[in-house]
Amino acid sequence: MKKIVIILASLLVTLSNPIIAAGDAEAGQAKSATCMGCHGLGGNSTIPDFPKLAGQGQAYLVKQLQHFKSGERNNAMMAGVASLLSEQDIEDIAAYYSIQTISENSAKGSEEKIELGRKIYVGGKMDTQTTACIACHGPKGEGIPTAGFPALSAQHAEYTASQLKAFRQYSINKQTDSDGVQRVNEMMNNVAKGLTNEEIDALSEYIAGLH
Length: 211
Hints:
Cytochrome Bc1 Complex, Chain D, domain 2; globular; disordered N terminus
């Protein structure tokens, strides 16, 4: 009898909570019109400072938009955009971008630079205990959507480098009591803190060519 009561109580709680419908990609396409100026047609930005969103995991996109809206992720432009979105808008836009195909990048950087990036991506750095990127983002940089690890492949090298430096800045701020622009994620903060500018640039160029 006690078990039956518990089950019924659980059902009542579930039924009493509003459920946001799954993202509608068609609706998301219409709602993404304001995003095109920075992120391009179908989420394929042509401006290196703005990330490509095409093919990114839906759950990851939802999380980032929610973080921009709440202020957990600091970006004045995106905070303004996200503040106007409902939870359903966020789900729809994420659904739309997640099914788009990301554009490929032309190879850049010297062979030595790309090889340095490859070594860090595949093997990490033993001397600074930097975890290999491949562990979470996969051999082709496709990420693990079910685990919330984002796709990286074919992303603009400039954008990837800026984010790695922002993750690294978190440790710098803590050590020096400064207030440089940072991005907070414990796992990525630990990865980025052991990377030099040269290594970040090499890694970003290598990731840009993954596809």
